[in-house]
Design a protein that fits this description.
single chain; 257 residues; five-stranded mixed sheet; 40% helix
């Protein structure tokens, strides 16, 4: 074989190897989640991650034929951690909002549920008007804390690092009410820890704050990865895998309209 032909062949093999390596790298996705937001994502005592977000993420990865690993991150710093390339995507019940779209890109939604208010069962609060002057707990840096500050300006909104902490405070009488996703609150009320409380009312969705459902967040400009997740969501819904996971956690269609 002439030298020029050998060089061309070697260059071709190197290019193929490089391309294969790049393709393989693209098939490995690190997913960031909070691990403190049941029933959507929760870090169990044995170190395993469970919840609707996690099962949906695994199904999407299988649909994409991608090898996915998970890491947990505090909610307050989860977008900066994504931007710092500590992981490639966030799957943590993150609502697609105009404010977040300035920082990250999203897939299409994979579920959409409204917020709600919960109060103690013996609470004197009977309507939203009664929240005036009352303490209202919310997880900080969430759509729910933003909703509380905008729609209940006369309430004393108290911010918590995680949902578990506001749940503990309302159960022990330290705050008067809490705001969160209606599914999160409803599932908590079914437990012994949530026996203290009841749903006061679901809230009207404020699209500017609540967005258009929860999506997979990726770094700004990584639209190719966002599109892959969008296609994977469509794929698992078409295959009935989504419905199977939905049924495991909820007795209604969490996907929404």
């Amino acid at each position: 074989m002439p030298i020029s032909t050998r060089l061309l062949a070697a260059a071709s093999i190197a290019a193929i190897s490089l391309f294969s390596g790049a393709a393989l790298a693209q098939d490995k996705i690190v997913i960031g989640t909070e691990g403190a937001y049941p029933p959507f994502n929760n870090l169990e005592a044995d170190g395993t991650l469970t919840g609707f977000d996690i099962d949906i993420a695994k199904a999407m990865c299988e649909q994409m034929k991608a090898e996915c690993t998970f890491v947990t991150n505090d909610w307050d710093g989860i977008i900066p951690a994504l931007q710092a390339k500590k992981f490639d995507a966030i799957i943590a019940s993150m609502s697609i909002t105009p404010e977040r779209l300035e920082k990250v890109d999203f897939s299409k939604k994979y579920y959409n549920t409204p917020p709600a208010i919960a109060v103690p069962k013996d609470s004197p609060i009977k309507s939203l008007d009664d929240l005036k002057g009352k303490s209202l707990g919310a997880q900080g840096s969430t759509t729910h804390s933003n909703y509380a500050e905008k729609h209940f300006p006369d309430a004393d909104v108290k911010m918590y690092p995680t949902a578990d902490e506001y749940k503990l405070d309302i159960a022990n009488g330290r705050i008067d009410a809490v705001i969160d996703d209606i599914v999160v609150l409803s599932e908590w009320l079914k437990t012994d820890a949530g026996a203290c409380c009841k749903i006061l009312t679901p809230l009207k969705v404020d699209v500017e704050i609540n967005g258009n459902g929860a999506g997979v967040a990726v770094r700004k400009g990584d639209t190719a990865l966002a599109d892959k997740f969008t296609a994977a969501i469509a794929g698992i819904r078409a295959s009935s895998k989504y419905q199977e996971i939905n049924k495991k956690y909820f007795d209604f269609d969490v996907y929404g309209e």
